[in-house]
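During the second half of the funding period, the structural biology subgroup turned its attention to how the target accommodates small molecules. The most pressing case was zinc ion, which had performed well in the primary screen but for which no bound structure existed. We therefore specified the complex as follows and requested a full 3D prediction, including the ligand pose.
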Amino acid sequence: MGYKIASDEQIKKVLRRVLSKHPHVQSQGKLKMLVINELNKRRKKKFTVSEKRLRGIAARSGFVKIEIHSREGDPQKVLFKCPVCDAPLKRVKNLTIWGGRVTIEFKCPLCGYWTSKKKRVPTLYVFHFKK
Ligand SMILES: [Zn+2]
């Protein structure tokens, strides 16, 4: 098979072009399709990119807002890295004012993923173009 791996810079450029035409993309699979189509336009070599890698590039790009839909996950699960973009998660303590209870949350400084004790499992991503 003649697939080539595109560089982060190539993907980022194409991603910007795709999102300027489609400012709201309703799923990761659809975004991948649009990016690959645009990437391979007028090209003999065929490039590809995985959905996970594309999501990471989108999170780091600075011009994509990722809307994360999720379901509740396993409270026992230990999370160090963001399940969306692989960045290290920040541990945030919240003291609730009335009950005086401390809750621990984890937040991703890059893509906006957050979770409390029930580790949210991402199920769907919607990509928005930030202008
Ligand atoms: Zn993240």
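Two results from this model are relevant to the next phase. The mean pLDDT is 91. Helices lie at 8-21, 28-39, 51-61.
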